[in-house]
Amino acid sequence: TASATTVIIYDRAAPKPPVVSISSPNTSPASVNSPNFQFVGTVLNVTTKSQVTFLVNGQSTTGFTFNPSNGSVVSSITLNQGVNTLLLQGTNADGTDSKQVTIVYTPVQTLQAPVVSYINPASNPTNVQLSSYPVQASVTNVSSPSGINIVCNGQNVTVYSFSNGLLNFNLNLVQGANVLTITGTNTAGSDTKTTTIIYQP
Question: No. of H helices and E strands in the chain?
Fold first, then answer.
């Protein structure tokens, strides 16, 4: 009788599931004022781009680069106005990992210079027969009454109402030509419109 014994040692490699991280944006939610954004993330323990999934607002995209040597994922994306969700995911034989961030895109509001236009009187010059005349004008891109200046016959008009871009006041006319000037001013500029109201009783 003869016998032999052999010992086989199986060392199973430790599992290495993906590890996902996002460095740009570095906060969530992130607030930006430009629609163009460069996303930067990392997916470790994967070797090919096919093991990486990148979702922009729920839609899968292949518009990203993957560097297998360091796991970096870079994508230049165009954001929608409002809330945008970005999800980066990695998958291999040992598992799946993902990270999600939110970016809020709010466009910069460019202030426009004021625009003054007369509603009443509607023509220039205007002939009237009453000494009290109601004036109404539109003054856009001005937020407060301090941005309004009214001059009639060289005298400042200080009693008026201004709301939602509409300016209203009454003029006490002198006989003959009454020259009225309205100016709207903000940090972007100013606009001045002049009209003549002729009072002949």
Answer: 0, 18
